[in-house]
Amino acid sequence: MRPDMRPDEPEWTPPPADPERPAQVRRILRLFRPYRGRLAVVGLLVAASSLVTVASPFLLREVLDVAIPGRRTGLLTLLALGMIAAAVVNSVFGVLQTLISTTVGQRVMHDLRASVYARLQSMPLAFFTRTRTGEVQSRIANDIGGMQATVTSTATSLVSNLTGVVATIVAMLALDWRLTVVSLLLLPLFVWISHRVGRERKKITSQRQKQMAAMATMVTESLSVSGILLGRTMGRADSLTAAFSKESERLVGLEVRASMAGRWRMSTIGIVMAAMPAVLYWAAGVSLKTGGPEISLGTMVAFVSLQQGLLRPTVSLLSTGVQVQTSLALFQRIFEYLDLPVEIAEPERPVRLEKIRGEVRFEDVTFAYDAARTTLDGIDLTVPAGKSLAVVGPTGSGKSTLGHLVPRLYDVTGGRVLIDGTDVRDLDFDTLSRAVGIVSQETYLFHASVADNLRFAKPDATDEEIRAAAGAAQIHDHIAALPDGYDTVVGERGHRFSGGEKQRLALARTILRDPPVLILDEATSALDTRTEHAVQRAIDALSAGRTTITIAHRLSTVRSADEIVVLDGGRVAERGTHEQLVAAGGRYAALVRRDVRAVVAV
User: Which residues of 206-237 are buried (b: 16+ CB within 10 A; e: fewer)?
Assistant: First the structure.
């Protein structure tokens, strides 16, 4: 289980692959539909190139049977120039085919990457708490990257080789149908062999991509700043290196298997095709000796030239079939993400609130991560606009989950959460993001400058607005004292700043966003007392005039809340002001006494 997963959240696993999905091929073809005009141009170029290619052997036949024996120098010159022109035209067509097909393939890959990223952006928070980050990165980078050869060249290769094979066979039949039959006798066997090889490589490719995802996960987790700190302080650097080496060794075996799968069988096809000229010369000789029709030297050479020309597109066509089957495993992994159900979607007719007062109401709210356990049960609470609510309780009582329901990081399984009387499930995403801001214990900063991190909340914020927000968060003086000021790069996950400084940067970012509803999720629980006081001053400035829901572990931060709610087992156990709850002598009073003992012990 990952350390950031809740105990009651199962780890995400992809649905089982359906090997009998004919729709998958049609779905792949639909990816190319927006570019069918360019592909039609490629098809025309391919057809023209194939006609030019098969014309060369006929020119060669005329050279050998007519021009040279007849000493017709003029005709010989024209035929030679024709053969040179055919080569030049073929080269030009080939370059244009490559340019267009590569452009189309790269656009398809871009569409896939963008679609997967957009789908993941619409996933609920639960998906990311159940899925390894390295797995997500591997699907976008390795799986889509692994399809590059297929999507950039397969369509052109398929059309080019198929057209080449058909045109060549027609030309061979025009020269001599008997030799053509001899040349094509083994073709069905070759098709069957390539199909078997493709199935074998598809299976190995699926295993290889899973292994690459496992390695990406290990790299992401162990080579992050936090992972390095943990590994070194726990003395696990050597064991992590050994574990990575073991995973890499498994990948070596899979890569070798993928490279060698069916290699001997495909080589056999090449050997047989290369030996066909000898067979054709033998067949022609036998036919002549047994009284069969005479075949001219020019026809024989032209036919062998065509037959050798048939070798390349035939082998390439068979290899393309193998490559397509191999790529189906990659497409399957990508489609698994594209087919993820969007559990939290914008409503068909979203409500947009232009002016948000900030009243938050929970009406008989129930929530469960799965059917086995209910996390929240029958929560009825109202936080008037501009007022504050503190939520306290033991670990696992549902405090953070309650806060996450307001911005729809999760959707309720029963009841409603309302902002200004409107169910949050009916609000458009823009209204919801403008309405609710969250500052959590887990502060996330991008590996960018301080200014860029703050502008993430408001891209068009001016320098004056950024400085004002930082001042309100009690962090401006510290930033201004840095050599690069607001251009200082914060480092991976903000590790160049202390915990309190990162927390105040997060507060400044939220101030810049200026949400009327503020969720403070254990925002100071990981800080020392002195830093907590500094951050608390910033929080007080941020909370002024806003509807504030504070989820707290340290009760010293919630004494002044307009109402305090004690959760226990997902239910409201107590509610009231600090003074009322202390006087009642219940669960809250016990929590206060625990905090007092903890402070005295320190």
Answer: bbbbbbbbbbbbbbbbbeeeebeeebeeeeee
Residue 524 corresponds to which amino acid? Answer: T
Contact call for residues 546 and 507 (beta carbons, < 8 A): no
- State the CB neighbour count (10 A cutoff) for residue 121: 7
Rounded-to-integer distance, Cα 127 and Cα 132, Å? 10
3-state secondary structure 175-208: HCHHHHHHHHCCHHHHHHHHHHHHHHHHHHHHHH
Could you tell me if 297 and 66 are in contact, meaning their C-beta atoms sit under 8 angstroms apart? no
Question: What is the β-pairing status of strands 376-383 and 547-551?
Answer: unpaired
* Identity at 545, one-letter amino acid code: G
Q: How far is C-alpha 422 from the chain's CA centre?
A: 34
Whole-angstrom Cα distance, residue 177 to residue 295?
Answer: 12
What percentage of the chain carries pLDDT values higher than 70?
73
Lookup: tokens for 130: 């159940």
| Tokens coding 495 | 């590790």
What backbone phi and psi angles, to 5 degrees, belong to 255?
-65, -40
Say how far apart CA 384 and CA 547 lie, in whole Å. 7
- Integer Cα distance of 535 and 84 in angstroms: 79
Contact (CB, 8 A) for 38 and 103 = yes
Residue 135 phi, psi (nearest 5): -65, -45
Q: Tens digit of pLDDT for each residue in 530-572?
A: 666 766 777 777 777 889 998 887 777 788 889 999 998 889 9
Number of other CB atoms surrounding residue 370 within 10 Å:
11
Positive or negative, the Cα torsion across 421, 361, 366, 4? positive
List Cβ neighbours of 40 (8 Å cut-off, separation of 6 or more): none
Q: How is residue 11 annotated by DSSP?
A: P
Chain center to CA of 435: 29
What phi and psi, each to the nearest 5 degrees, are found at residue 191?
Answer: -65, -45
Taking only the tens place, the pLDDT of each residue in 306-326 is: 766 666 666 666 666 666 666
SS3 498: coil
Q: Count the alpha carbons within 13 Å of 98 in the hemisphere toward its beta carbon.
A: 6
- At 49, which helix (H) or strand (E)? helix 36-62
Q: How far apart are CA 66 and CA 62, in angstroms?
A: 5
Closest CA to 488 of 457, 465, 480: 480
